[in-house]
UniProtKB/TrEMBL annotation, chain A:
One of its GO terms (molecular function) is metal ion binding. It comes from Flavobacterium seoulense. Residues 296-326 form the 4Fe-4S ferredoxin-type domain. This is 4Fe-4S ferredoxin. PANTHER family: LACTATE UTILIZATION PROTEIN B. One of its GO terms (biological process) is lactate metabolic process. Pfam families: Fer4_8, LUD_dom, LutB_C. Gene3D superfamilies: Alpha-helical ferredoxin, NagB/RpiA/CoA transferase-like. InterPro entries: 4Fe4S_Fe-S-bd, 4Fe4S_Fe_S_CS, FTHF_cligase-like_sf, Helical_ferredxn, LUD_dom, LutB/LldF, LutB_C, NagB/RpiA_transferase-like. Keywords: 4Fe-4S, Electron transport, Iron, Iron-sulfur, Metal-binding, Repeat, Transport.
Automatic annotation (TrEMBL), chain B:
PANTHER family: LACTATE UTILIZATION PROTEIN C. InterPro entries: FTHF_cligase-like_sf (IPR024185), LUD_dom (IPR003741), NagB/RpiA_transferase-like (IPR037171). Transmembrane segments: none annotated. It comes from Flavobacterium seoulense. Coiled coil: none annotated. Pfam families: LUD_dom. This is LUD domain-containing protein. Residues 95-193 form the LUD domain. The lineage of its organism: Bacteria, Pseudomonadati, Bacteroidota, Flavobacteriia, Flavobacteriales.
Length: 463, 195
């Protein structure tokens, strides 16, 4: 999977070439958002739940040092082997060392955005380990050698015809059979064999409980459980922010997660792993990879409350019309655009600008992260640190010089009106992005100041 | 320094200096609902079937009618010993690959999402509700709780190795948002509400 290095606006422009498909993508995600609304509105105490969840996570952030050690101690007591990884590279090495220790070359994996973030699959492939992603959406994009375009709906950018073609090529399904039932059954048969033959299964973690040392994995398909309960070794990878203090707090988050994600009342399976089954080996890899840095950025700290429901993506007008791949980051959309600059400011400097700051993300976030405020704040940081394109900085500096001086402003206004009226080609050309899919209004005959001066003169003359 | 210690040190120096209080949960989950009706409606909405029964015999009759072709049925409930295998709990979990129907009991159910709480103690094997083609779960009607709030109050600090809430049959909508039942786990779920 090659890294997409095109910046968001250019990638979005390419995505937007197929108008019909963009409209379909937009409507599909809005449909998911609508289901979220219906589900949320059916819970009278929805806002109280969001508020409580946000406060619980706020407590976790302020007591992370203690909770992590509590979690580690309990997990060890439960017979789980705990590892710590400072960054993606260390995480990948740890996972590989466990696999290598058991002398196997194949692993089945359920959905884990953390392993996407760390590029685990590429690392393992380079080391001769074959990984099969077992979530249907991830299985589809893996066959196509694409990254997931959405954290909850990995193949949301694809139409059933695309899936049918991919399965025909790799699983030899009937050509042209686009029936989702038929295609899902084909994947079920294929992956069942995978589950039954893999000695090692890797899963993500939705929540980890400090009080008990258990972790919870949520799926609809049952793929995490099929993998974990059949394998000799279960590896669970988690960013350290997945912690909740006590078991009872799971109730709050499980009520919010699936409703926010897809509008379901809960995922089909909410599996609590506390101890390895008899004869099984269970590992937890706790990963930092920039999270402790983000914890220290007061303005962006709240982004660590995220429970990866994807609601901010489904509602985002920019995400819906630019697609997940445009964000060139494991987590796309509004929340991804806050998390990504923390991982690599230079590479992801474009992302906080991929937003209209409309605030819809903040309104749907189940843990009340001030997403659009943080996007705005990242812009300030990125400009200050010199990570924005010089064309933008120059334009802003020019604008600020014009707006700061009344005489310059007057002359610039006059010149602008003259140019738009008499030499439109000077501004309306391919060099000026403002004219992409946009027409400027007709220039007024006179400026407000001119009009005001004239009016004052006229009323004086009347007297 | 180990990664563990360096991560923990960095967290300690970067986390907020003041501890933010944990909120109380006692005011949650108090909305009045018709627990059984809600349970049934939600379960239907997510693709499960619900049968109200008065006895084990009624469950057996239902299974005989609805799964006439089932070749291998497993259970952990001794009363089903005449129609299902009960001696598989110490076998290699892979040997359950050909199970058509698994019958288990649940500790309790949750009305707001139709989830049923099961633990390895009553599953026999952790994989048993996932690997079977179809799943039947029996739960006492009086053990249906309103929300997840009550669910975790009920679980309390009970010990288990593995526990899961099962809400409906396994499903996916990963192909163009079209709902398909039977992704990797059970293709169908019948919940027997025992009076």
């Amino acid at each position: 999977m090659k890294e997409n290095t095109i910046d968001h606006s250019h990638a979005a422009a390419i995505f937007n070439k197929d108008v019909e498909r963009v409209n379909w993508h937009d409507q599909t995600l809005w449909f998911v958002r609508s289901k979220r609304d219906k589900s949320a509105h059916a819970i009278p105490e929805w806002e109280a739940l969001r508020d409580t969840a946000s406060k619980i996570k706020f407590n976790v952030l302020s007591n992370m040092h203690h909770y992590l050690q509590e979690f580690e101690a309990k997990a060890k007591e439960n017979g789980i082997i705990v590892h710590w990884a400072a960054d993606g590279a260390e995480h990948n090495k740890i996972v590989h060392s466990i696999i290598a220790k058991h002398g196997v070359t194949q692993m089945v994996k359920s959905k884990s955005m953390l392993t996407e973030e760390c590029h685990l699959n590429d690392y393992l492939a380079d080391n001769g380990i074959e990984v099969i992603d077992s979530d249907l959406g991830e299985f589809i994009v893996q066959l196509r050698k694409e990254p997931p375009s959405h954290i909850v709906l990995p193949a949301i950018h694809l139409k059933k015809e695309d899936v049918s073609n991919t399965f025909h090529e790799h699983l030899h399904t009937e050509k042209g059979n686009n029936d989702p039932q038929y295609l899902t059954e084909a994947a079920r048969q294929e992956l069942r064999n995978t589950f039954l033959t893999r000695k090692i299964a890797l899963t993500g973690v939705n929540f980890a409980v400090a009080e008990t040392g258990e972790f919870v994995v949520c799926t609809n398909e049952g793929n995490a459980d099929m993998g974990a309960h059949l394998a000799d070794v279960h590896i669970a990878c988690m960013g350290f922010e997945k912690l909740v203090p006590e078991r009872k707090h799971l109730g709050v988050f499980l009520r919010l997660l699936a409703r926010s994600a897809t509008g379901q009342p809960i995922t089909t399976f909410s599996s609590h792993f506390k101890k390895p089954r008899e004869g099984q080996e269970m590992h937890i890899v706790i990963v930092d990879n920039g999270r402790s840095t983000q914890l220290g950025r007061e303005e962006f700290r709240n982004s660590l409350k995220c429970i990866r429901c994807g609601a901010c993506m489904n509602t985002c007008p920019v995400y819906r019309r630019s697609g997940g791949h445009s964000y060139h980051n494991a987590v796309a959309g509004p929340i991804g655009s806050i998390l990504a600059p923390n991982l690599d400011m230079k590479k992801n400097a474009d992302l906080p600008f991929a937003s209209t700051l409309c605030g819809s993300c903040t309104n749907v976030c189940p843990v009340k992260i001030d997403i659009h405020d943080q996007l705005y704040k990242w812009r300030q940081v990125l400009v200050k640190e010199g990570y924005t394109p010089s064309s933008k900085t120059m334009a802003m500096k020019g604008m600020s010089a014009v707006l700061a001086n009344p005489t310059v402003f007057k002359i610039a206004g006059k010149a602008g009106r003259f140019v738009i009226k008499n030499m439109p080609f000077m501004v309306n050309n391919s060099m000026n992005a403002w004219y992409n899919q946009r027409e400027m209004p007709a220039p007024p005959e006179e400026s407000f100041r001119e009009w005001y001066a004239k009016r004052a003169k006229e009323s004086k003359d009347k007297k | 320094m180990s990664s563990r210690d360096s991560i923990l040190n960095k967290i300690k120096s970067n986390q907020p200096t003041d501890l933010n209080e944990l909120p109380s949960l006692s005011f949650l989950g108090l909305d009045k609902i018709d627990v059984i009706e809600t349970y049934k409606t939600v379960l239907k909405g997510i693709g499960g079937f619900c049968e109200e029964v008065n006895s084990i015999e009624e469950v057996k009759a239902y299974i005989a009618t609805h799964y006439p072709t089932a070749k291998r049925i497993i259970t952990t409930i001794p009363e089903f010993g005449d129609i299902a295998e009960t001696d598989w709990t110490n076998d290699d979990p892979h040997s359950l690959a050909n199970v058509d129907l698994s019958i288990v009991t649940a500790h309790f159910g949750v009305a707001e999402n139709s989830g049923l709480w099961v633990t390895d103690g009553i599953l026999g094997q952790r994989v048993s509700p996932f690997i079977a083609q179809y799943l039947s779960i029996i739960v006492n009607k009086k053990d249906i709780l309103p929300t997840m709030q009550q669910a975790y109050e009920r679980i309390g600090n009970l010990d288990y190795g593995f526990g899961t809430f099962i809400a409906g049959p396994s499903k996916t909508a990963d192909i163009e948002q079209s709902l398909v039942l039977g992704a990797h786990g059970a293709r169908g779920l019948v919940v027997f509400l025992m009076n």
